[in-house]
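User: My collaborator sent over this chain with a note saying "see what the structure looks like." That's all I know about it. Can you take a look?
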Amino acid sequence: MRTALITGASRGLGRALARELARDGWRLVVDARDADALSAAARAIGGDADPGNITAIAGDVADPAHRADLVRAVDGGLDLLVNNASTLGPTPMHRLAALPVTDLADTFATNVLAPLALIQDVLPGLRERRGAILNVTSDAAVENYETWGGYGLTKAALEQLSNVLAAEEPEVAVWWADPGEMNTDMLRAAGEDADAAPPPEEAAAAFHRLVTERPPSGRYRAADLAGTR
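Assistant: Without extra context I'll predict from the sequence alone. Here is the result:
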């Protein structure tokens, strides 16, 4: 049975992608900071699937002890790591001239350092099973949206991390993928009109295609994977 570890799976894209994989019979290890929300999500993700195939572990990916719990949960082998958990940083979002550097350090800890640490922890198993890593990025990594600078910096760093990792690990597929705007709590917290954005299930279906078809390592956009522009 294929096993996937998905962070930030209590809502939005993480939850929707987990549900896609559960329907395909994957064994899932999922996490999120809110234990109650994660428990509810695990029940929804399971649907008609065997509940024994879903392990939910609440915690913060920036916490080394929590990451150790996740690694132990996939000790039997891992085929896919999805680094989806992330934070906007301080809201309301600031222009770079007013962005507190200490807050930016916390954003980097969640959006860049935690994914790298988790990759390091599970990479031996992924190499053994010729697995894959999906790092969820953003168009904010490459576009100059005002007030999105702090978040965009972290996603740009995650993209370059992925780019170098792909060169260093030819036996592991490494994808860094932009889901586009989605109707999520995160987009709403950023002050954007989330209700006008597509549901996260659309990006999840596109990323499911990425996992299923296993194209070469590289940067992908959900819109392109879905065959739209």
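A starting point for your reply to your collaborator: The two ends are 35 Å apart (CA to CA).
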